[in-house]
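We emphasize that the prediction below concerns an isolated chain of 380 residues; any contacts that depend on oligomerization or on bound cofactors are therefore not represented. The input was used exactly as deposited, without trimming of termini.
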Amino acid sequence: MKQLAQDQIRRVRTWIPGKTPASFQAFNADKSSQDILDLASNDYLGLSRHPQLIAAANEIMHVEGVGAGGSRLVTGSRPIHKKLEEALGEWLGREKVLLFPSGFQANIGAVIALADRHTPVLADKLIHHSLLVGIKASGAKLQRYSHNNLLDLEKYLKIFQEKYVNKSPLVITESLFSMAGTSPNISELAKLCEKYKARLLVDEAHALGVLGKSGKGLCYGIQSPVTIITGTFGKSFGCGGSFIACNKEIQEHLLQTSGAFRYTTALAPPMCAAALAALNLIQENPNLVKKLQTESIHWRRTLNKHGWTFPEGIGPIIPLLMGTNQKALKYQQILERKGILCVAIRPPTVPEGQACLRLVVRENLPKETLQKLLLALQSP
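Result of the prediction step, given as a token string:
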């Protein structure tokens, strides 16, 4: 599996906006590489190669250097860190934001900030591995509930209410699940958490820039009981790094106690500058988000009409259900021969018997992409 992935990375070429679909740019100088259309990337808005992001990163790199050179609490903090944190806080309607070098670190830090060995945690069965690692590190008492099933969640909340009288439960979910492409009803989930005095941690990594009002995610406008939001810049923002959005009290707690924040080199200044440029573009071009949402719905309806099945959702992640690993790999190879990269997702990333082809709709795909995909899927 690892070797196959490496081979795919070496061969991928991506279509550059503003040029003809036949104009591709290789990731390396391998002249034997074939042109292949990438339907696997999380670069939802096509910003990773945007000239404004490249210019912003290049400009600050010449001023601040490539790396931060230290942790935020030693020598790593730069004005660009504070600028990005404040801009994100204002955009999301949250008091404070803290930057992390990776989404994995942010999720671990978020869970540990809210849970310890006495904390009852209720987590959606499909949450990201990083959140599970955070739960394990915290020593919390974990109970999984059925995916996006609020009735199942409430059943356990009732049990926990009686079992842990003096301890507030922590509920953990994602707003757009990275493999299933599904979303919970966040407003109803928040009401349920309020009813049982539970705190709510939501990973918005895949939803920011994609879902919600102006791409602000599905938690926007919901304060209590959403205690922490985590997000990344490696998806819609087209670069790298991550953050935790929270209130002042939790921010101070993170500053004082979070090893994931305190004991790591600060997010590189060029990444901060690129993320800020991406945020500005998303704010200045709301049609980017609307267009992607509309196109995602169109893809879902069209694929469904052609007999393909996938979980119900509203975002750009569309996993075509294959069932067996063999079938998923077979279709991956068929699509690759037709010039389309769409990776087979297999256990343990997804449950046994639920192997799929994970399609990703992106804002900057050529117009004929969906038709080309449908034709390729018809191949024997």
